[in-house]
Structures are given as structure tokens and as C-alpha cells.
Amino acid sequence: MEIHFHDSEETMLDTVMPYFGWVDTIRAINAKESQIHTTQMGLLQTALFDHGYRIFVHPYGDEPYEIKLGANDCTNREIKMEHNLFNLWKAGEFF
């Protein structure tokens, strides 16, 4: 299962059934949909790993990257379950 976070609606142009709303995205996560594309960056959290999701971020004007537990290519920080991924993303931790 994959969840794709798009920080711009423009990066979602070629996706099938994108989720722009908070409630629709939460429903899709709870329904364990196999592939979710959303603009709701506030839902970027490590709890998604517990749901079985691989997490991808699609930044505007740059290549998408995957965030996973442990070492990552997109950051020098080792990601742990207690991290707040949304705050790390807001702070520019991922490159």
C-alpha cells in the first residue's frame, strides 16, 4: 500500500482519484485503500507505517521521494516512530 503526499495540486495532474479533502483522505486511509494521492500534508505521520503504508512525497518542481523508518536518502536524520513527519517536512528536513 502506498500514500503519496503532493504539496501542490499541479503534481497530482496525472493521478487517478486524488483526494483534496481532509475527511476524504482519512476515510481512504481507514479503508486501507492500496494507493492514495492527497494534498493533505498535515496527515503526514509515522502512524501510516502502522497502517502498512509506504510514504512518498511529491514536492512541486522536484522529484518525489520516499520516507521510511531508519535511514533515508532524502534526509540525514534516521526516522523513528516518535518523529513528527509533518513538522520535519515543514522545517525542510527532507531534500
Structure description:
- The chain is an alpha/beta fold and 95 residues long.
- It has one domain (2-90).
- It is 20% helix and 26% strand.
- The protein has 3 helices and 6 strands, in the order βαβαββββα.
- It has helices at 22-30, 47-50, 85-90; strands at 2-6, 35-38, 54-58, 65-67, 70-72, 75-79.
- A 4-stranded mixed β-sheet has the order 2-1-3-4, covered by helices on one side.
- Strand 3 (54-58) and strand 4 (65-67) form a beta hairpin.
- The longest helix has 9 residues, at 22-30.
- It is globular.
- 20% of the residues are buried.
In a nutshell, what does this entry contain?
The chain is an alpha/beta fold and 95 residues long.
Instruction: Indicate how many domains the architecture comprises.
Output: 1
Distance between the termini: 23 Å
- Mean pLDDT reading: 93
Strand order within the widest beta sheet = 2-1-3-4
Computed Rg = 12 Å
| Structural class based on helices, strands and sheet pairing | alpha/beta
Let me know the number of strands: 6
Question: How is the main sheet built?
Answer: 4 strands, mixed
Q: If helices are DSSP runs of H or I spanning 4 or more residues, what is the number of helices?
A: 3
Order of SSEs: EHEHEEEEH
Helix content: 10-25%
Bulk shape: globular
Q: Assembly type of the shown chains?
A: single chain
Low-confidence stretches: none
% residues in beta strands: 25-35%
